[in-house]
Amino acid sequence: MNKVENNKAWFLVLPVFLIVAFSAIIPLMTVVNYSVQDIFDQNTAYFVGVEWFKQMLNDARLHDALVRQFLFSFAVLLIEIPLGVGVALLMPTKGKAASLSLILIALPLLIPWNVVGTIWQIFGRADIGLFGWGINAMGIDYNYAGDPVDAWLTVLLMDVWHWTPLVALLCYSGLRAIPEVYYQAARIDRASRWAVFRFIQLPKLTNVLIIGVLLRFMDSFMIYTEPFVLTGGGPGNSTTFLSQSLTKMAVGQFDLGPAAAFSLIYFLIILLVCWLFYTTIMHISRDGR
Amino acid sequence: MNWMAWTVPTASFFTTIVLILIAMTVWELKSPSIERRGFLPLLTTRGDRLFIGLLGSAYIHLAFVGFTSMAVWIATIISLLWMGIVMRWG
Fold first, then answer.
1. What's the CATH number for A61-288?
2. Residues paired with residue A44 on neighbouring β-strands, in sequence order
3. Which of A34, A195, B64, B90 is the most interior residue, by most CB within 10 Å?
4. Phi/psi of residue A279, each to 5°?
């Protein structure tokens, strides 16, 4: 049979290419240009080479923010991924209960980031917030505005509340896609509940978990709005993450050069970690087959 | 183009990247790449090795700028060597 080669359909991708160029590639190129110059106004810029990179890489505040950022992202993944899988396994699969639980679980995802911050800001307050007041009433001293540990726990709890549903929904859809015959075979083999999870459900969930881990890592690594509204980066600098340091520099102080250098370093870190995650997970799933 | 604040070094950097991408496309069309395993602990295509080489080069430059006081062009030479090694034996 003669196969007709026609690649004209590629032209249909052209609009997307243009949009991506204007929304991502050109801004990124501009950032690269800014990062090697000292910019005073629109017409006055001096070439400074790698000066800003040197300064940023040796900035103690940024080192601290980077360490905090990694701690936060790994804590988020460590809690949200197992919890999301667990929630998905417990969710009802049929009838009205299934629809109701899906709606309830999806609710936090529909709330805008700054509103989530405001909700937890009030919820956690010791004087008028239910959560803060309740914890204090149990005799535990809790004040997220004054104590760094409490601030961290509150930011983490807020993120878990906001984003575990995403992982749960992804896993739920993954679980629904497993054909019934697998479970029948498992029943014939008298497989335990754990064996069913370990050898049927978990391998089938690999692909959605890859997406879940990548999405949650990138989002938590770029987190800005929620801690900004909740703690403002405080007390002190204890909940100031990378993007907040960056915003302070670029918008607050208008230091475009250093901020551009810093965002490129930030971008390279995200690129490396995502690539490592992706390659490792793809490697494992390919070897498993 | 004034708003993008171009400089000669950044312009030549991006031109090089674009030329590499065009060259890789032409090379791929002439002789499609086959996945293979070199000294890197994973199967890679030509494009994968280019990506690893470029990302590695970026980190080599960052390490030189951040943690030593040596000139940047030394980092560039090491990066070129690294790119060559990864593309050939990676």
1. 1.10.3720.10
2. A41
3. A34
4. -65, -45
